[in-house]
Amino acid sequence: MVSNRETPAPEPLVNILLARNHADRAILHEKVLHNHIPHLIASIFLLGGTGPQLSQGFQHESQENEPWSTTSLVTIESADALKPYLGNTSYQKSFIDFSDSELLRYKGDWKDLLSTYLTQGPTPLLSGLVGGFGHPLILLADAWELQSPVVAVEALALTAADWNDLHKILVFSMNRKPPANVQGAHKVIQKIAQDPRFTSLQLTGPGVQNTEAILSNPAAREAVMEYLFMLDVSSQKTVLSDLAEIAVLFECYGPKLGDLHVLLPVFGAEKDALMLIRCVWLLMILSYVTQQRPLLQGWIVEDFKIPEHTTWQDICSEVTSGAALQGKFLDPHFLRAVRNLKELGSGDEHREEFYLKAAMKLKTEWT
């Protein structure tokens, strides 16, 4: 697992706060809500925040999370012993303790640990990054950008806790030849928008709570599988660009697309890269359908007015000024979205203005 990406070395306070969160706070609270402290700390740091802002963000977000229970329900001692508990969030402390002990066994080599558990053996866990609607994927990208063993261990444990049946769709997709009529992401999304198999679904309104309603409907589930295979992945550069633009247009703001940019160079094997792309694409399909398939209109972003010569420094000025953070700038979801838009824009100079406009639009409209 190798990446040529350059990120600033975390200041000591980043690692101190991440270690404190790891020791004191559960990765899930109420068994389903995710601990967003690593996302917030990583975002403040990578957007140019200061030590006092990092401490402020930590204190603010800590109020939202549960402390660890004192003991694990079971002691997991091997990869084989882990399998029966996958997807049971009641065992999250056991997953953390197991991952911590494995890191020790690997002599602190967290990259080798991740490689072993995510990509090797009879049951590689890479497909499980799709669980929790992609939260393990996001946490794994945080670990890589911060080069943090602590966050890497949490990403592995969260993959185990969030394990669900979506991984079966991904595993099945890897054992099936793609159809002859593969198409670009924009064309596939247009087909999804017009597909009557999604029209009869009884959705409760926009939101990922509708995922089960989609996948429990045989016709809709078959459509999801069909479109998962239909995406043309022959050019990573093209598919990443297309997926990022589509995510922005239906206000997903590319949170997992930025993570894909981070992780694809790490997982160099073709099958692993394909798994990651399909993981994000599957989540995008489900997001689009659960949002009730909105009409995607490029002018919504393209026509948004920003001052001439706007830079990412302007977008992130509330962070880089060093002043106390307020409102949305203490919201890990907002900061993570801005950070990922910056990641996408900085990596595509021909479309950077598009992502600058999307970020400024997000900043203006987020309440």
Mean pLDDT equals 92
Radius of gyration: 20 Å
**Termini Cα gap:** 39 Å
Structural class: mainly alpha
Range of helix content:
55-70%
SS field, number of helical segments? 20
Low-confidence stretches: none
Strand order of the largest sheet: 1-2
Main sheet attributes: strand count, strand direction, barrel closure: 2 strands, antiparallel
Order of helices and strands: HEEHHHHHHHHHHHHHHHHHHH
Written description of the protein model:
By secondary structure, this protein is mainly alpha-helical. It is built from 20 helices and 2 strands. A hairpin with a 3-residue loop joins strand 1 and strand 2 (33-34). Helix 6 runs parallel beside helix 8. The longest helix has 21 residues, at 270-290. The mean pLDDT is 92.
Give a quick set of tags describing it.
367 residues; globular; 20 helices; 2 strands; two-stranded antiparallel sheet; mainly alpha
Helix/strand layout:
Blueprint: H1 12-24, E1 28-29, E2 33-34, H2 37-46, H3 51-62, H4 79-82, H5 92-105, H6 110-119, H7 131-146, H8 149-161, H9 166-174, H10 185-194, H11 211-215, H12 218-230, H13 236-249, H14 255-263, H15 270-290, H16 299-302, H17 312-315, H18 317-320, H19 332-346, H20 352-365
Antiparallel strand pairs: 1-2
